[in-house]
Write a structure and sequence with these properties.
The protein has helices at 10-20, 59-74, 103-114, 145-152, 168-178, 220-231, 274-282; strands at 2-5, 23-24, 27-31, 37-41, 49-53, 79-84, 117-121, 133-134, 137-138, 140-142, 158-162, 182-184, 186-191, 194-198, 208-216, 236-244, 257-261, 269-271. By secondary structure, the protein is of the alpha/beta class. The strands form five sheets. It has a six-stranded parallel sheet with strand order 2-1-5-6-7-10, with helices on both faces. It has a six-stranded parallel sheet with strand order 12-11-15-16-17-18, with helices on both faces. Strand 8 and strand 9 (137-138) form a beta hairpin. Helix 1 (10-20) crosses helix 7 and helix 4 crosses helix 5. The two termini are 13 Å apart. 44% of the residues are buried. The structure holds ribose-5-phosphate. Ribose-5-phosphate binds at residues 91, 163-164, 166-167, 195, 213-221.
Length: 283
């Protein structure tokens, strides 16, 4: 097995290769003056099982993924596995309004055309129970909330809270390793950038609270949830999240400890998703 990576997922790919004692493959990636991406494999893949670790935070990451997968196929790889820790467009997993494109389905269908296996991490539609299949596309949707939970193990008087009902199973999964109580808040999304938290009487007075969510996009959800729990008397609030996009930066979280995974690498990536990926690739 040869592990390849996109430009953004190099550190994670190294961890995964180490865990599998696998060789790392080389790719030449260039960007033309007009912004188009150029991909050339520098390691032969003929007859090989290859794995590409390629997170997708931007449209360019998605193009890099598809071009690299296509190069594996063109060059005779025996089996191609796409590991896409953060799957772009995952939140548009249905037509919420008439006429909308189902973006998550389209993206997965394109990846599926070039990959024999697709592995992702806590794709948003996992909440709907889509662990092995989404809209007819086979996926291996890995759960990293137990790893995030383990990071907070040992904090006294701990309660783990999810910011909405949809993600309550995430808090439950994390608590399964920490052994603490869990609950959820009630959220109403007003627009892409605005959310409202409905007051919910939670017993957090004097407790240390970890708020866990799958995605921080604008950060509004986490910010509002933290404010509400502080108001309700929480001693200290921590934030834990799988996919930290930080579309509006991190300034809004000043004074709060934020823990992200490396599905999208950034300076707050303190939990690696490598162990779950290694386990999936071994089985
Ligand atoms: C939505 O249901 C997700 O689980 C997250 O809560 C959401 O993506 C967070 O978005 P934002 O950071 O923009 O509030």
């Amino acid at each position: 097995m040869i592990i390849f990576s996109s430009r953004k997922s190099e550190a994670l790919a190294k961890e995964v290769a180490k865990g599998l004692s696998a060789k790392i493959g080389r790719i030449e990636t260039k960007v033309f003056p007009d912004g188009e991406i150029y991909i050339r494999l520098l390691t032969s893949v003929k007859g090989e099982e290859v794995v590409l670790i390629n997170t997708t935070q931007t449209n360019d990451d998605l193009i890099e993924l598809i071009l690299t997968l296509s190069a594996f196929k063109e060059n005779g790889a025996k089996k191609v596995t796409a590991v896409v820790p953060h799957l772009i467009y995952q939140r548009q997993d249905c037509a919420f309004k008439e006429g909308e494109a189902i973006s998550a389905k389209v993206v997965l269908e394109i990846i599926d055309k070039y990959a024999d296996e697709i592995i992702t991490v806590n794709a948003h539609f996992m909440e709907k129970g889509c662990k092995e299949k989404f809209e007819g596309v086979e996926i291996n949707n890995l759960d990293t909330f137990p790893l995030l939970g383990a990071h907070f193990k040992g904090i006294p008087d701990l309660v783990i809270i999810s910011p909405d009902e949809g993600s309550k199973d995430y808090a439950k999964a994390a608590c399964s390793v920490v052994g603490c109580p869990h609950d959820y808040l009630v959220k109403k999304r007003i627009s892409g950038e605005t959310v409202e938290m409905q007051p919910k009487d939670l017993d957090v007075k004097g407790m240390n609270v970890v708020i866990l969510d799958d995605i921080i996009a604008t950060g509004e959800t986490m910010k509002k949830a933290a404010e509400m729990l502080k108001k309700q008397g929480a001693k200290k609030v921590y934030l834990g999240c799988v996919h930290c996009i930080f579309a509006k930066g991190t300034d809004m979280f000043k004074g709060i400890e934020v823990v992200c995974t490396d599905s999208i690498p950034n300076k707050l990536s303190k939990v690696s998703v490598a162990p779950v990926i290694v386990k999936a690739l071994k089985s």
